[in-house]
Amino acid sequence: MTRYWPTLLLFLALAGLGGYLYLVEFPTQQREEKQERAQKQVLPFPETAITGLRITTAQGPIELKLAEPGKWSIVAPLQTDADHREVQALIRALVTGTVTRTVEEQATQLAAFGLEQPVTTLTVTAGKQQETISIGDSGPLSNTLYVLRASDRSVLLTNLAPKDFINKSLMALRRKELLRFVQNDIERVRLTYATTEVVLYNMAKDKPKPSWKIRYPIEAEADQNEVRSLMFRLEDLKALGIIDPGPERDTVAKTLTTPKLKITLHTAAGDQSVRLYQPDPQSGEAIAET
Q1: Which carries the bigger pLDDT value, residue 35 or residue 198?
Q2: Strand positions, DSSP E, 96-221
Q3: pLDDT tens digits for 259-268?
Q4: Tally of CB atoms within 10 A around 148
Q5: CATH number corresponding to 47-173
Q6: What residues does each domain of the chain span?
C-alpha cells in the first residue's frame, strides 16, 4: 500500500490543481476577456436591445423608434416609415464597431478631433439605458473615425467607417419603396392606361412560383418572364425625392392631370396602388402618387 502513496498524492495534487483552474483561474480569465471585449466596444449594449435612435446633424434632429421587431418608424420631424435596411445598417455598424485606442479620457480639447462641432451625433436608447456617440474627423487610417462617448467623455479612435455615419439625411433614412409586397401573395395586377387597361391574374397563388394569365382585355396565357420582370421592376421602384403635404405639394398637384399609368396590386390583405405622371416627357422623370 505504501508504494501507492506517491501516486495517490500526485493524483490529489493534480485534482487540486484542476479544481483551482476550473473554479478560480478559468472564471477569472473569462471575466478579464469579457471586460476587455466590453472596453473595446463603442456601445455598451447589444443590437437586439436597441429600441430608439436620435440622429442630429446640421440639418436638425431625426428621431426613430422600433415600432415592432424588424420595423423602424421615424417619429420626428415627421411621422413616417423608416428605411429598415438603412437604419439597421447604421445600428449594425455602431454595434460591431470597436475601439482601436482611447485617445483621451475626460476630454476637454475636442477641436483637434473634429468633436467641438461633430458632423453627426447619435443617441442610442436600449430600454432604460442610453448612450450618445458624437462623430468627429477621420482617423489616421482609412475607415477610422474619432468619436466622443458621452458616458465616460472619452475620445476614442475607432474602426467606424465615415460612409456609415456622414450625410444621414431625412431622405436617406425614410422609406423610399413605392410598393411593398411579396410576389406570391399577389392575386391580380391591374395596369390602367389613359385609353385601356391590362388585368393579370396569378393562377398559382400560395405556390412557390406564380403563374400569370391575362384576363383583360383578352383572355390568354401571359409571358411569364415578362411579367416576372415587371414584378421585379415594381419591387425596385423607389422615390428619389419626396414632397410632403404642404404648399409645395399643393403646387405640384395642380400640374398633375391624367396619370400615364396607374398600377394596382390586389392581395387578400388589401390593395396597393401608385399613379405615375409625366408632366415633362423630355426630362425622362416621373412623379408618383401613392
Answers
A1: 198
A2: 99-104, 120-126, 129-138, 145-149, 154-158, 186-192, 197-202, 212-216, 220-221
A3: 999 999 999 9
A4: 24
A5: 3.30.1490
A6: 47-173, 183-289
